[in-house]
């Protein structure tokens, strides 16, 4: 019986220690995800608001914000986009979106950003049943008409400061 109890206790502690996440805060020395490091940052990405406080609606928390993308130099076709979350001292891929969703959410046509034209996803909201803050980084990888790959990315800070 004592052996069974010790086994259960050790198993519980190991499972708890592996699921605990240290969210932390990225800084100047935080490495970018590898897929972005070799690409020039030529796509502007903006979040509004940049620091995002949640509201509670019924039993859920909503961090309401908008995300905009923009290119100044040339038309670009977006070939990949998604979001990373910062925890355990590094950026961790949260999700890569289906590229066809870009047209629906950002109102592009054939995933193309026209030079000088802003595209905005006005309801890019985070929602959860738990109240917690953290950092995310949205990224976009695009291709110029010459075939050159470029990127854009920007962080957003979601807080646990509930708006009343």
Based on secondary structure, the structural category is alpha+beta
| β-strand amount | 35-45%
What is the overall pLDDT average?
89
Number of helices: 3
Calculate the terminal CA-CA distance, rounded to whole Å. 52 Å
Number of strand elements = 13
- List segments where confidence is low: pLDDT < 50 over at least 5 consecutive residues: 3-20
Helix content: 10-25%
Order of helices and strands: HHEEEEEEEEHEEEEE
Query: Judging from the principal axes of the Cα atoms, what is the shape?
Result: globular
Radius of gyration computed on alpha carbons: 19 Å
Largest sheet: 7 strands, mixed
Written overview of the protein:
With 164 residues, this protein is of the alpha+beta class. The protein is 17% helix and 43% strand. The protein has helices at residues 2-19, 34-37, 101-106; strands at residues 40-41, 43-48, 51-52, 55-57, 60-63, 66-71, 76-87, 90-96, 112-113, 119-121, 126-128, 134-143, 149-158. Strands 1, 3, 7, 8, 9, 12 and 13 form a 7-stranded mixed sheet that branches. It has a 3-stranded antiparallel sheet with strand order 2-6-10, with no helix packed on it. 19% of the residues are buried. Mean pLDDT is 89; it is low at 3-20.
């Amino acid at each position: 019986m004592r052996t069974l109890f010790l086994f259960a206790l050790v198993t519980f502690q190991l499972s708890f220690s592996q699921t605990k996440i240290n969210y932390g805060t990225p800084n100047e020395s935080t490495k970018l995800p590898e897929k972005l490091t070799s690409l020039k940052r030529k796509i502007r990405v903006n979040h509004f608001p940049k620091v995002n406080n949640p509201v509670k609606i019924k039993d859920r928390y909503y961090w309401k914000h908008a995300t905009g993308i923009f290119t100044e130099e040339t038309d670009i076709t977006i070939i990949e986009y998604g979001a990373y979350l910062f925890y355990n001292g590094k950026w961790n891929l949260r999700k890569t979106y289906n590229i066809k969703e870009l047209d629906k959410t950002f109102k592009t046509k054939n995933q193309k950003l026209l030079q000088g034209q802003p595209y905005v996803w006005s309801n890019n909201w985070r929602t959860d049943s738990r109240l917690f803050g953290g950092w995310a980084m949205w990224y976009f990888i695009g291709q110029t008409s010459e075939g050159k790959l470029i990127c854009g990315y920007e962080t957003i800070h979601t807080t646990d400061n509930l708006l009343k």
